[in-house]
Amino acid sequence: MDYIELILRLPNDQLLREIITAELAEIGFESFMEETERLQAYIPASKFDFEAVNDLEYIKKNLTIITLEHNLISDKNWNAVWESNYKPVIIPGKCAIRAPFHKPVPDLKFDIIIEPKMSFGTAHHETTAMMIELLFEINPKLMTVLDMGCGTGVLAILAAKMGAIQVTAIDNDQWAYNNTKENIIKNNVSNVIVYLGDASTLGTKKYDLILANINRNILIKDIPVYENCLNTDGTLVLSGFLTKDITIIKKTAQENELEFSYSINKKNWATVVLTKKVYNEE
After folding, report:
1. What are the phi and psi torsion angles at 277 (to 5°)?
2. What CATH number belongs to 3-81?
3. What pTM does this model have?
4. CA nearest to 258, candidates 204, 210, 200
5. Is-contact 93 108, C-beta < 8 A?
6. Which CATH number fits domain 121-276: 3.30.70.360, 3.20.20.150, 3.40.50.150, 3.40.920.10?
7. Residue ranges of the chain with pLDDT lower than 50?
8. Which of 51, 75, 141, 175 is 20 to 30 A from 254 (CA-CA)?
């Protein structure tokens, strides 16, 4: 699959960068690389619409201080681009998330190997880092887990290594689907099932823990589906949106009989934890 690399040169303004990243994610951009005064975003070439990029609110507002250019990256050249920017992620005392070409990190409980291809979810982004943090807090041991929008499969793999009974990983991107299957093999986990699809593939399946790190619009649309698939007393963890979007996420959750527990944030990105309410019949 060929990809488009969109290069944005913009001021060193973290809030502006985060908002534009979120806007790009909502129109199909899947992965991002950040440098000082530079943001690189990647999308399948078949989905790229330069006019849609220019019409994004915060890009349109700031065209006097932002410059845009884009390049085609062929499938065969992608790994060289991605690997050149890929560094291991270490969560002290807990786990390392690294590529096969990185050396193992000693004295950590979990060692996760992720082949650094296009798929989103290498723990470099704040949303994935928060999801991992909460996975350790919740502890999926003996749970049935759904990793929705699995990307690289890092959350599904970690949940399996932590003792989840069964893990389902779903992504609607062919590249992510293939990458997750590859990473499952590299990490020697046998209880992760991977599907190519979206929330419509869930049907009547039930889970104790659902993890969904996608984007605001998809989350809002799919929260009713997640609620239906969540066991009573189950937990739903959502990320992929900015702190300013917490209010609408909470409102949608409450409209679907999900109880807001708490939220955490890194920079301007947010993650919320929801639980399925228990009603006592009288």
Report:
1. -65, 150
2. 3.30.70.980
3. 0.81
4. 210
5. yes
6. 3.40.50.150
7. 280-282
8. 141
